[in-house]
Amino acid sequence: MSYQDLEFTREELARYNRHIIIPGFGEEGQKKLKAAKVLIIGSGGLGSPALLYLTAAGVGTIGIVDFDVVDDSNLQRQVIFDIREIGKPKVEAAKRRLEALNPHTRFILHNTHLNSGNALDIIKDYDVVADGTDNFPTRYLVNDATLILDKPNVYGSIFQFEGQVSVFNYVNEKGERGPNYRDLYPTPPPPGLVPSCAEGGVLGVLPGIIGSLQALEVIKVITGIGEPLSGRFYTFDALNFDSRTFNIKRRDDNPVNGKNPTIRELIDYEQFCGMRAVEEKPAKEITARDLYDWQVKGKKFKLIDVREPSEYKIVQIGGTLIPLSTVLEHTDEIPNDMDVVFLCKSGVRSLKAIKELEEKFAFNNLYNLKGGILAYIDQVQPQLTRY
Amino acid sequence: MATVIIPTPLRKFTNQTARVQIEAGTIGEVIDQITLDFPELKKHLLDQQGGIRSFVNIFAGDEDIRDLQKENTPVNNSTIISIVPAIAGGSF
Q1: Of A190, A208, A254, A370, which is the most exposed, with the fewest CB atoms less than 10 Å away?
Q2: Among A137, A154, A46, which residue's Cα sits nearest to residue A94?
Q3: Domains in chain B, please, with CATH?
Q4: Catalytic residue set of A
Q5: Nearest chain A alpha carbon to B92
Q6: What is the reported pLDDT for A329?
């Protein structure tokens, strides 16, 4: 059904009055929103404000992709959730909040990890995608899937005090297609070089700003008002209040939609991002259950916790605190005559510590706690505080 | 002197300095100088062959240097150079 055939109830006309009276937006713009199907990938920091504003604005159908459950540590920035929802699936918690906001919007929940196997199937039924994910493999996956399916992708990304926004793969009224994420960043950084928000932190207001800008661009793409941020790349430094808008272009060597495309279907994005690269000598791992076994049996070993002191204060399991950045200065505290287990929040930083130590000091007695303290809490001591 | 804007994730390598003044004639010279002044920046900006990493974009003014003359793009006293690495945060 075309948007022109839609009719608003009196109640809807009253609700959307402040949109309808905007010159150039009108009832037509509002009908386009009602007819639109928008997919929000990630209902976290960026997804929260995007979902709230797009629902309030009267988008007719909103899909939400998230596999996670609400955690207390999310509430510092994920304003769509509240303490009653802790432990519940995010997509369901979001739906409860959004349905109370606008009964005229229909929600479709995808309580799953977006991956190469399901992405095309999930995205194909939507008109616009807003990418609020939190990792490079999913960024490239969403990008490629939207290129293959010919959908505009409203991109937002944050780290600490820095935010980025652009509209990718947008076709303007002249039929000209704008650039996409691969034109901007052909390859991702190798794992470990750029910390994640879970390690590097993010100021809670920043995703509120960037996610709201994504909602704004989604509305512009749907209604055709103004100039969508296509071919332009916006960056915001919250610390200095410095915002810049750069010009970006399509590239002939884009492997998905350049002159000689080599990628015609979705690939293995974890491998593409180097996360499953074959290593000559993988670090030894220990599971949370085995570590617990060592602890209760009184086995002689040393446990080293490479997280930051602020994290250690939240929860710790008896490890000696040596933050990752200082590990190489504290080798005297790392014995070589017994097994040593390294741990961090999820297992990435501890692996990095082991790699550095093995490379520089020829240790061969170091074990990485698989899945970090979070796995330990999940599998062994669920009463401890997660963060 | 040209002004280089350092993004927040890289400021830990520039003593938290957000804007650095560099005397140089081209983008390539700016990068040479800034990685000399702040050696730890090097592995974040350049690959092992000395090329600009493909997850780091450099803009002279509002334009991507890949659309200008890449490392040979001329700079002058009023040029503002932005270093913009890929970031991926959002959900968690």
Answers
A1: A190
A2: A46
A3: 2-85 (3.10.20.30)
A4: 197, 344
A5: A44
A6: 87
Structure tokens at A312: 């250690």
Neighbouring CB atoms inside 10 A of A383's CB total: 5
Structure tokens at A1: 């059904």
CB contact under 8 A, A44 and B84: no
Does B59 contact A156 at a Cβ distance shorter than 8 Å? no
Q: Which two tokens stand for residue A184?
A: 């901007």
Burial class, A329, CB count within 10 angstroms (exposed 0-12 / middle 13-18 / buried 19+): exposed
CA distance A208 to A96: 20
This prediction has a pTM of 0.84
CB within 8 Å of A94: residues ≥ 6 apart: A43, A47, A48, A51, A64, A66, A80, A81, A107
**Which chain A residues in 166-205 lie under 8 Å from chain B, judged by CB atoms?**
184-189, 193-198, 200, 202
Rounded mean pLDDT, A99-121: 97
DSSP calls for B30-55: HHHHHHHHSGGGHHHHB-TTSPBPTT
pLDDT for A209 beyond 70: yes
What are the b/e assignments for A205-243, b being 16+ CB within 10 Å?
ebbbbbbbbbbbbbbbbbbeeeebbbbbbbbbbbeeeee
Amino acid at A66: D
Tell me, yes or no, if B9 comes closer than 8 A to chain A by beta carbon: yes
